[in-house]
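Progress report, Aim 2. The chain analyzed during this reporting quarter is listed below.
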Amino acid sequence: MDDERRIFRSGALAVTGDRIVAVGPSDDVARAVSAKETIDGSRFVLTPGFVNCHVHITGEPITRGYVPDDTDWRTNVFDWLIPTYMAQTPEDERLSAQLAAVEMLRTGTTCFIEAGTIMDLSGVVDVLGAIGIRGRLGQWVQDRAFAPDDDQAALTAAAIARLEDQIAQFPAAGDPLLAAWPCLVGHNTATDDLWRAATALAQANGLGVTAHMSPDPADPDFYLATTGRRPIAHLADIGALGGHLSLTHAIHLDGEEVALMAETGTHVTHCPMTAMKGAYGASTAGRFPELQAAGVGIQLGTDGNNNGNSADMMRAMYVMAGLFKDARRDSALFPAHQVLEAATLNGAAGARLGHAIGALKPGMKADFVAHDRDRPEWVPLLNVINQLVWSADGRGVHSVWVDGRRVVEGYRVTTIDEDRLFAQVEAAAPLIVARAGKSVPCAWPVL
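Predicted structure tokens for the chain:
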């Protein structure tokens, strides 16, 4: 994924500390470096680590799949997801974050952007730091007064103070593994003052802003009714668009909104698995081919474990590659090489880390993945890009390095006791479901 998009059939990669120092034909790299350790990579395909630009690492991983798959958007969000988020404890959040990190690492994701931790950001950062994944995260922030007796000014001041505090506590300067961003809930939950404050903080500190927008017509309807403009046009009016901003879903757009996003360099995070499962209308209303043609940076996300239901970016790549080919009956849309760019280079740019990750080239951080070729989906190896996107998935990830550290080896995360974690999650999940006042529905009898 370097500037020339070179593919080495017999290649080598050299790492010193946390940086890649050489990439190229095996013989050339062997002559250029004196290796303290050499790993036989002939069994593997090496790629940059994937960048998951929208994932809920708390709230959902430890209740994966219990939300029924026949609910509409409003029922899914307000009757199921929000009660589930509110029923978790700080200890649950830490377990959830660990499980999410294990799943991401084991399927080749080395960097993520969090949709928004609910309560215990410090605890989440602590456990993620021990595991060794790269991420940009923050507490989920909103400020709009919905109840008649809410004090709007106080809500906004508290939300801005929360953003300022977490950015000060977990700064991004120097490209640490983990740093805080403004993570806005989005939709209709943020006032213009909060949008402006989040934008100013991001621009002053070299950060991004992430927010949900327009997965459902409800968002355009709200903005048209309250501002007279559609969401993207209104955000443009208040100066919130730009290269710092990643809007998740962005399905129900019009042509003006597509043009505004292209003009301002705003990023879009496409969550194709969630769009399909949630019947968001991506295939009928989504303008992702138009966004791509206009030059908008489309990046990929897996969303929550009760929406996309999987944190495997390779599954998301498969769906992105196929969705619009079928919807538009145009096989030229989103070829495999463009989808791989969305999962690596575009994601790195959206994470404000394009200078450090997303490609295998000297000077970049040593975040890379070894895909096991000793599997039927990789045999024979003819077109590596097609096979990566169309044939393989995250179950073929053998080893992963983040910041030069091997954090997955032989299909297992090396930095945590996986068996203990899985047992803890199994015990915690039913308790969260009960506290949320829910049961696990199933169409067939469970005996």
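The chain is about 40% helix and 15% strand. The two ends are 50 Å apart (CA to CA). These observations will guide the mutagenesis work planned for the next reporting period.
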